[in-house]
Amino acid sequence: MRRNHFLGKLEAEGKVELVEPSDDICESYAKKSADCLRSAKLLLRNGLYENSIGMSYYAMYDLLLALLFKTGIKCENHAGAILLLRLAFGEDELSETIAKAKQERIDKQYYVTTEKEEITKEIAEELFRAAEDFTLKLRVLLGKVDRESLEDARRKLAEIVGDESARIRERPKDPRRAAAKTTNNSTPASTTARA
Fold first, then answer.
1. Count of the separate structural domains present in the chain
2. pLDDT tens by residue, the chain, 195 residues
3. Most buried among 19, 34, 122, 142, using CB within 10 Å?
4. What angle do CA 31, 34, 36 make, to 5 degrees?
5. What is the number of alpha carbons within 13 Å of residue 28 lying toward its C-beta?
């Protein structure tokens, strides 16, 4: 597998690393994902289309984090996590779906739009359907994670970041501390996880 310079840079910065696999953290992110999907539906029904787009994206992203923690990979970067879905898990289609959702979320969250409300509504509806499909497929993938696939994903990560010097080391840590480190930087957890 070819080395990926972006993921290698994230690894050097400590933003992607191997941690102890954790079913507890996986389940917590899976619950957050389900909550985001429900929120997206409620927002869509109430005409809050731009907000629905954001929640549809986070339904996907939180479930992706669940997959990463289930396999013992911590990634503190949205683009990096999406890239790992493609490179470490071979999920090109799902990676493309969440990448498009991420761009829509950024466009609607940070920029003022001149789109007609009907267009934004169409985008929100399409993204909600994509989030439903994505989360269903990713839950199936989560259900298939076994010891062999877990080790395969971890091995691929080491190859992707160019682990010649064994920079990525398994650190026997409490998995809750690994998750807390993900969210307990100088900013509140909600802003760190939602960058």
1. 1
2. 678 999 999 999 999 999 999 999 999 999 999 999 999 999 999 999 999 999 999 999 999 999 999 999 999 999 999 999 999 999 999 999 999 999 999 988 888 877 777 788 999 999 999 999 999 999 999 999 999 999 999 999 989 887 643 344 444 444 554 454 444 443 334 334 444
3. 19
4. 110
5. 10
